[in-house]
Fold this protein.
Amino acid sequence: MRRPLVLGNWKMNGTKASNAELIEGLKAAAAGVDSVTIGVCPPAVFIAQIQELAGDSNICIGAQDVSVHAGGAYTGECSADMLKEFGVSYVLVGHSERRTYQNESDELIAKKFKATQDAGLVPVLCIGETLEEREAGKLESVITTQVNAVIDAYGIEAYKNAVIAYEPVWAIGTGVTASSEQAQEAHALIRKLLAAKDAEVAAGMQILYGGSMKPGNAAELMAMEDIDGGLVGGASLVAADFAGIFNAAK
């Protein structure tokens, strides 16, 4: 049975004061929740603070991005080894906002995926279609291309230590959520694509749903056969809301 995973993507939000208040609230809410992996992905500048605040609690740390390079003259970049030094366990790669605003290609995202794994961290590959692509009937082709970018570069074995997050772009930050049936359709497609290459990898893959997940819809979404948790945006910035989601995952 796949263990539920709920990650909060803080995006470009937070202050030292608000972070401290949020983590204290999450530590209290997460205490004793031992059947779900819970994590937060703060902006890079706050990772060290979150490492200290989280302490020996059951809240793990993720990063929102990573460099493909191990080090050198790459101003503004953070390597996977640097992130690892500050207790990072998960790294988001290919989030739709980076695909859109930083023009990240599938090829670059695959390299970030591999750089994350090479450092002993777990990449969370974010994939999903735009509204225009969905309406044009391109869901399957978009998902296939994004999943296969890693397989084509590094083989199906690369997915043995990884997470996939399905985030329909039209549901991110819009308040619109894919129905549980729509989400399940996409998650089942992802698992089918993996199973065509390696049934064991497919069976073990944690596939998260992202896209306006809230306490009110989390239980219904995560009751679906192929939905193994959530990559949560805005709701992860409020301790009570995020707790409602990871408690639903139990």
About this structure: The chain has two domains: 37-119, 128-250. The domain at 128-250 is CATH 3.20.20.70 (TIM Barrel). The longest strand covers residues 88-93. The mean pLDDT is 96.
